[in-house]
Structures are given as C-alpha cells and as structure tokens.
Amino acid sequence: MTKTPTAHVFSDAIQRLDRAFEYAQIDEEAVEKLRHPKAILQVSIPVRMDDGSLRVFEGIRVRHDDTRGPTKGGIRYHPDVSLDEVKALAFWMTSKCAVVGIPYGGAKGGIIVQPKELSRLELERLSRGFIRQIADFIGPDTDIPAPDVYTNAMVMGWMMDEYSKIRRQHTPAVITGKPIPLGGSLGRDDATGRGGYYCIKELEKRRGWTPSEVRVAVQGFGNVGQSVAQLLHADGYRVVAVSDSRGGIYRPEGFDVPSLIRTKNEARELRAVYCHGSLCEAVEAATVTNEELLELDCDLLVPAALENQITAENVDRIRAPFIVEMANGPTTSRADAALAERGVIVVPDILANAGGVTVSYFEWTQNRQGYYWSVDEVHRRLHEIMAREFTAVYDFAAEHAIDLRTAAYAHALNRIGTAIEAQGTQRFFVNDR
Ligand code: NAD
Predict the structure, then answer these.
(1) How high is the pLDDT of residue 269?
(2) Using CA positions, which residue lies closest to atom 34 of ligand 1?
C-alpha cells in the first residue's frame, strides 16, 4: 500500500465544519474555536535499547477542545505519525464525543516509531518514557489517553502504572483500554467494532437487508477490523475480503472469519488458511493489494486501517454503495463530495467508530466509582447509545436532505456549540444592558 499522505489532514478535516455549520443552530464563534487546538505538547523520549545504545523518539500529544469535559483520545505508534495528523485525530475525537453525547472533549497522541522493530522490553521503556514526559499534561480530569494503531491493552497497563508511580497514587482512570485485571472494562476490547456493527444493524433495518446477501470488504485486520468482521460474520454477513498492512485476500463466497483471526494472530500473517488444532487447510482465495480491496465489487466497504484511503484519485473506482468508516479519516473531503454526488451512503467515522470511546467512557466511569459492570451491561448501554445517536444523525440527514457526515458534524456542532454559548458569545456580551 502507498504511504499515507498526512501533510494536510488537519486542514482537510476542519473543512467539514464549514458545511456542517450551515445546518447547525449555533453561533459562528463555536466553529472558530474548534479550528484551533487548545494545547500541543511535543516531547523527546530517550530510550536505552537492548544493545545498550540510546535512541531518542519523538512524541506528540494534542488536546483539541475541552469545552464539554476532559479531553480523550488514543495514542498511536506509527512511523508516519506527524503533528498535522495528531491534530486531525484530536479534532475528530472532539467531534466524535459530541456525536455520541459523552462528556469529553478530544485529544490524541502519537510516537514516531516502527513498533515492529522494537523488542517487548524496548516497547515498555518507550511507553513508560512517553508517560514520564507528558504526565503533567494528562490526568483523569484533564486528558485521558487510550489505545490506537499499534498500541494495545498491555501498553495502556504500563502507562497507567507509570502514571500511578509518578503521582504516588493508584490512578486507573488516567487511561482507558487497560487489561481487565488492571481496571479495564469488560467489553472494551471489541467496543469499536461492536459500535460499528450496531450502526450496520441500524442501516440494515432501514434498508431491509438480508445479511447473507451483503458482501463485505474490510481493510485493516487489527483490533477494529477483526471485531467488526467477526460480529458481521456471526450475524450471517458474507465477509468476502480482508487485508492488513501487507495486502489482502478475496473470496467471493465469503470467509470463515474466526479461522482467519486465529491464523492471523498465531502466525502473525493474514492467510486464507483454516486450522483446527494442528490440522491446517488452505482455502481458495485471490490475493489483492490494499488498493484493489477498496475497489472490489462488494456491497459494504469497511475501511478499518488508516486515514486517506479513499481519495480523489481512486474514488471513481470505488464500487461499494455503502461505506462504514471504522478507521479515522479514511475518506478525504474531495472524495467525500464525489461519493455523495454518486449517492454512496457513508456512515462517517465520527459516528461509526465511536463505540470505542463510548466504552472507554464506561471504563473511566467504573474506575471512578470503583464498581464494575457485567459485559451484558456494557453491551446494553453501548447499544442504546449507538442506536439512539445513529437514529438522530440519520433523521437529521433525511430532514435536511444531506449526507450522513454533514448531519453527524451538525449534530456534534449543536452539542459543542450550545456548551460554548453557555459561557457567552459576542451576542451575549455586547447586549450587556
Ligand atoms: P490496530 O493496530 O489493531 O490495526 C491496524 C490494522 O491496520 C492492522 O491490521 C494493520 O496491519 C493495518 N494497517 C497498518 N498500516 C496499514 C496500511 N498502510 N494499509 C492497510 N492496512 C494497514 O489498530 P486499530 O485499533 O484496529 O485501529 C484501526 C483504525 O481504527 C485506526 O484508524 C484507528 O484510529 C481507528 N480507531 C480505533 C479505535 C480503537 O478502539 N482501537 C477506536 C476508534 C478508531
């Protein structure tokens, strides 16, 4: 796959505000405020490597807006991490938390690193080192990190432990996505995929789909891609293609997703091989590149890898009539306009992948209460929020005859805007007599 261009992600991302503003009932000052991240911290993280040498990594944390609550957002480990990308991701978090109505603003963090090149010990030192550098910037009431691309529950556990040591106080609520024995929430592991799945179920109701007739292609087979594919497969949907960073596999009859997940996680490789114990059997499947996967003849395309995948360059070749964005920012604004013109229905990232931050919110709530919920309770509450907010966005789009993305941003802007207005805008301050 081509290297993800990240140079203009932030300016591209905030363009969406202008269009949404036309439909939101809020003061323009709110949009102006959202154009500027609240605070940016860039740090150097010196790490002693296993061979005794010293390497210095670059880390970033951006807090975008905290009008509605402490900021919240994941930490990404990737060689392409840049300040521009992290700013965009933080902006999307602000929007996402507002779409689903949870009391947070948005943030994001990242380290420029190829984590696959580090040993586990080096990864632990890097993760703890990052927390030492940003400890004064984060906290349960200020900014709460979580996992993102190439970070996982164990990394969150190290980070929580390091923060607790610095504060000399057990502080599980400083970070979410932790391992269950360290204060993680049941149901957090597949929450993002599950939230997307609940959106697809809502779409199904409105479109009258029969799951077995819906062919799904999933780009990215990590935490999010695997869980959405697994839930759809269990529900009878036909998952015909999946891919990871090295490329994908395609089988028009559909894959047995649990077998693919087992092979991927055991062999660390995506292969069309089903294993039962030590007995393995290869199934017929075509090899596709990540670009080809996006252009396959399918009914539902689920980008679940990185941003900027559907662009002005390839948008005309996208054949799926429905796209559910599980990755953050997989579609550029120019491609978006072309999709809308063609009548392609796109469930936008800030709604489709909001299940993760929603269950992160549940985790934070449970940490602060010191009282933990059952997995059924987590699923029930997540379902309630996703179905409610999907309906609100869908109905808003229908009412104004606009695409779902514009509707989702307008819905978010209404929530953020009223919070900003509650502190007073020019209109309030000039009429002070
Ligand atoms: P992950 O690290 O578990 O998986 C990422 C997947 O993408 C892997 O399969 C990897 O092989 C693949 N990938 C990496 N580089 C790629 C490339 N250049 N082309 C194609 N595939 C590539 O990450 P994740 O947590 O599953 O996150 C995936 C997306 O979902 C990201 O955009 C992330 O921001 C978004 N997201 C994640 C969460 C969450 O809770 N984890 C929540 C909301 C949004």
Answers:
(1) 87
(2) 328
Pocket of ligand 1 (CB under 6 A): 1, 147-150, 192, 219-225, 244-245, 290, 304-306, 326-328, 353, 356
Atom from ligand 1 closest to the CA of residue 147:
41
pLDDT digits 0-9 by tens, 397-424: 999 999 999 999 999 999 999 999 999 8
Region 51-80: mean pLDDT is 98
CA of 32 to the centre of ligand 1 (A): 30
Per-residue confidence (pLDDT) for residue 422, from 0 to 100: 92
CA distance 18 to 23: 10
In eight-state DSSP terms, residue 35 is T
How are strands ordered across the β-sheet holding 54-65?
A: 39-48, 54-65, 105-112, 71-78, 143-147
What is the arithmetic mean of pLDDT over 161-180?
98
3-class SS of residue 286: strand
Q: In testing the pocket of ligand 1, which one of 192, 197, 270, 361 has its CB within 8 Å of the most ligand atoms?
A: 192
DSSP category for residue 184: P
Residue nearest to atom 28 of ligand 1 (CA): 305
Tell me which residue has tokens 């004064």. Answer: 136
pLDDT for res 433: 62
Q: How far does residue 79's CA lie from ligand 1's centre (Å)?
A: 14
Q: Which atom of ligand 1 is nearest to the CA of 244?
A: 11
Query: What DSSP state is assigned to residue 136?
Result: T
Mean pLDDT of the chain: 95
Question: Which of 170, 146, 158 is closest to 121 using CA atoms?
Answer: 158
Global pTM reads 0.93
Distance between Cα 306 and ligand 1 center (Å): 6
Q: Which residues are catalytic?
A: 108
User: Residue 43 pLDDT more than 90?
Assistant: yes
Pocket test residue of 72, 154, 245, 378 for ligand 1, highest count of atoms within 8 A of CB: 245
Q: Is the pLDDT of residue 2 over 50?
A: no
Residue 41 has φ and ψ, to the nearest 5°, of -125, 125
Does position 5 have pLDDT exceeding 70, yes or no? Answer: no
pLDDT at 7: 58
Residue nearest to ligand 1 atom 37, measured at CA: 148
List, for residues 250-279, the tens digit of each pLDDT value. Answer: 999 999 999 999 999 888 889 988 887 778
Non-local CB neighbours of 45 within 8 Å, separated by 6+ positions: 56, 57, 58, 59, 111, 126, 129, 130, 133
Residues 6+ apart with CB under 8 A from 201: 235
